[in-house]
Amino acid sequence: MIELRNVSFAYEGKAVLSSVSLRFESPGQYAVLGPSGCGKTTLLRLMAGLEKPQSGRITLPDTPISFCFQEDRLLPWYTVRENVSFALPHAAQADRACAARLAQSWLDRVGLSGEGNAYPSELSGGMKRRAALARALAYDAPVLLMDEPFRALDEAAHTDMLRLVRTCAQGKLLILVTHDERDAEGMALVRL
User: Is the pTM value of this prediction over 0.90?
Assistant: First the structure.
């Protein structure tokens, strides 16, 4: 469960969120919608603990949180497989062969089977996006925060990745920021 009580946040004096109170129950799937600049990304950053509210209170679970940022944030000096391996739990990382197999299985699931040895600079925008999704899902946290995870994907890839995310989020808390109403079908809606 994540709860925000009267949370306010501003950048350089410009209010982004003002007295926001929300509750996200786990397990559950939530879609956060709203116009650009209304504070959706800031809301996720607050829930991930990357920002602190200027007022109000946030209650976070004592569990790991996986965050898929708007930007791909792939490490350019790592191959795609190494980028995904980087997010695996430490026990899996300790066995390199196991980590490589697990990472490859995630690449297979996002349609990047043959790209494991490529570097991010060798991928298209949509391929980078899918690699970032694979990394976020590989972390296997009970809380998934996803900030426009399907942007830069063509229609078919968008549909496939949405299906994968929803399947992987079963029994977890998923909070998905999107501008696409179709992504929100069947989810609890939060409008900012």
Answer: yes
3-state secondary structure at position 67? strand
In 3D space, the residue among 150, 140, 129, 144 whose CA is nearest the CA of residue 29 turns out to be: 144
Q: What is the identity of the amino acid at 105?
A: S
pLDDT (tens, 9 = 90+) of the chain, 192 residues, equals 999 999 999 988 888 999 999 999 999 999 999 998 899 999 999 999 999 999 999 999 999 999 999 999 999 999 999 999 988 866 556 677 888 889 999 999 999 999 999 999 999 999 999 999 999 999 989 999 999 999 889 999 999 999 999 999 999 999 999 988 889 999 999 999
Q: Say how far apart CA 46 and CA 2 lie, in whole Å.
A: 11
| CA torsion, ordered 24, 35, 161, 187, to nearest 10 deg | 40
Backbone φ and ψ for 140, nearest 5 degrees, come out as 55, 45
Short-list 156, 162, 160, 155, CA closest to 178 = 162
Given a contact cutoff of 8 angstroms between Cβ atoms, the answer to whether 92 and 142 are in contact is: no
- Going edge to edge, which strands form the sheet with 2-11? 14-24, 2-11, 55-59
